[in-house]
Amino acid sequence: xxxxxxxxxxxxxxxxxDYHDIWGSRxxxxxxxxxxxxxxxxxxxxxxxxxxxxxxxxxxxxWRRALPPVLVWRDSRSPIRIPLTVxxxxxxxxxxWTFTPEQGEPFRGILSPHRLPQLAERVIDGERQVRCIFELxxxxxxxxxxxxxxxxxxAGTAAESMRLIVAPxxxxxxxxxxxxxxxxxxxxxxxxxRSARNWGIGDFGxxxxxxxxxxxxxxxxxxxxPLHALFPDQPAHAxxxxxxxxxxxxxxxxxxxxxxxxxxxxxxxxxxxDPSFQARLQALREQDWVDYPxxxxxxxxxxxxxxxxxxxxxxxxxxxxxxxxxEYQREGGRGLRLHGLFEALMEHFRRDDxxxxxxxxxxxxxxxxxxxxxxxxxEEHAERVEFFEYLQWQAELQLASAxxxxxxxxxxxxxxxxxxxxxxxxxxxxxxxxxxxxLPASAGAPPxxxxxxxxxxxxxxxxxxxxxxxxxxxxIDVLRAGMRHAGALRIDHVMGxxxxxxxxxxxxxxxxxxxxxxFDDLLGILALESHRNRCLVVGEDLGTVPDEVRAALAPxxxxxxxxxxxQKDWEGSFLPPADYPAQALVSVTTHDLxxxxxxxxxxxxxxxxxxxxxxxxxxxxxxxxxxxxDRARLLAALEREGLLPGxxxxxxxxxxxxxxxxVRAIHLxxxxxxxxxxxxxxxxxxxxxxxxNLPGTTEQWPNWRRKLSIxxxxxxxxxxxxxxxxxxxxxxxxxx
Length: 736
What we know:
- The protein is built from 21 helices and 24 strands.
- By secondary structure, it is of the alpha/beta class.
- The chain has four domains: about 1-75 and about 435-540, no CATH class; about 80-165, Immunoglobulin-like (Sandwich); about 195-415, Glycosidases (TIM Barrel), CATH 3.20.20.80; about 560-735, no CATH class.
- The strands form six sheets. The protein has an eight-stranded parallel barrel with strand order 11-12-15-18-21-22-23-24, surrounded by five helices. It has a five-stranded mixed beta sheet with strand order 3-10-9-5-6, covered by helices on one side. It has a four-stranded antiparallel beta sheet with strand order 17-16-19-20, covered by helices on one side.
- Helix 1 crosses helix 2 and helix 8 (about 320-350) packs across helix 10 (about 380-410).
- The longest helix is centred in the middle third of the chain and has 33 residues, at about 320-350.
């Protein structure tokens, strides 16, 4: 294959031939990587498949159908112009068209292709095809509509159809942020919340109590880690950013004792009265790190009891609760059923192969969710599939209760949730949506200062053209699930809406390439779902961010994601608060960075050295020197704002430890920024040193397990929390 041919094929598939890294150097993508990524997309260019054939197929694809699979129109005030492809020999033949609005009766009409403006033409299989533009005579409102064309001789029967998405120009923003409005809220990793009543892991009951505490303290938001479904049968796989399925919830967050069936289930009451079971719960509460396998064991024991009770008392007798569950199943549809089916299959095959992980380890006959073997399993194990649907129903009820409580208490934003970039290769989402995912490849990031070897996140990316062919349904479903019970949603790695860094199979991140996505279309859908769900959008735009991304997001009302530790000028000095953008969420740090105390002490650098994560000793020394400079620069920034604690100078040696006075001053510094929303990491307020997550590690460090240091019940009497809350109310306002 010629270089020109390979380059052209990559261009058609959205694979960039090169990119500039964070140091400004141009990196050429190796030919082997480009070939591997094409193969991961399902584009064959070897064997009996010539490159010319692949190029021809891709170029001709849009000419072989009358309508594109989907059209996203982002200007709802101008007439919608629909591209229509017609064989030249049939230009004189009328076509029947049907517009089906999301709500209401369809509109129909007849169009004459030869009278339409013509844009281009192409010969396909010896027949000339003409691309025309049809202007829809109706101006529909925002929403998901349908448009179809067919031969007029068929009495309006639609031969081809497309999804027509009409989107607003901006995302939703709550009233509290209108104008110069600013507010704040605490942020937690929900699993890390320690309480006197939970079962060793923070749960939705804790979340409801946290909402009540935050509202009383004057906050308008409660920030959370992703709550997506993980792997209940393999609970040690605990990263919330590598979920099984972003459409559903992590059932380990269920507050067992608040489930409706708990109070009326004698078997559950008997279990709770068992001293040995109580001892297990108390041991789990006292641990400083979440023991996921042990937590899952105790919860699943009781879940099974509650399900058997529910089946006998409510499903068997068609009670009101039984009716509500049936309605939930109908609303969840095939997506809910397939998720429950996946969970049942995981449980089933793990009994035979405890070391196996994910659907890739199943027998071949079960790897396709539409296979006869899977359908037979579904029939044979219908009750167990329903058990997992029941757990999702209960989780949904409890999360919805927490969000309603935030609204009842007048919180201006409510739950601020987090949407992971992708799903685990072995999880339910990739099993269900296999055609859309490039399963052999992985999303990641190119080398940078933070990770000099680059990053491979192990999440298979979606294939851009397959996503379009699906009418963007998988993307829409994920957004809806994330926004359903959220007042704000953080889009992890929002740059991925424009371009995503793909790591080739069996390759390193340094060998990866950027792949282009239909940015404008995805932004339109984001805006539409934001309004539908009345959900503020935050775009996590850390790292190497193309200028076009921020330029597109800001006018849409999407908040940028600004962290104090990264907000510096070209000389390395920390920016003053006034230089932060108003259209932003600000925080001191986040889950992938050291805590404030850990940053000051260099705890993260110590861990990286101990775990041999530095590529060289010289690199480690450079990081130590940079950290020393950052401490001095942070003190200088506080002094410029008149916030440096009294009696201390600008020498970091005056602060061998991060004092409470410094913690408070740093939060006050950030609170002065005009940014609309500020979130406060509770690890920083509680002065914890250990990180939530140490990027670049898996088994070397217990990521996603470290708990908060004090119980939720003690927050109300902790002077540090009261001090920060009072300071933020004074600086950022108190609307209630």
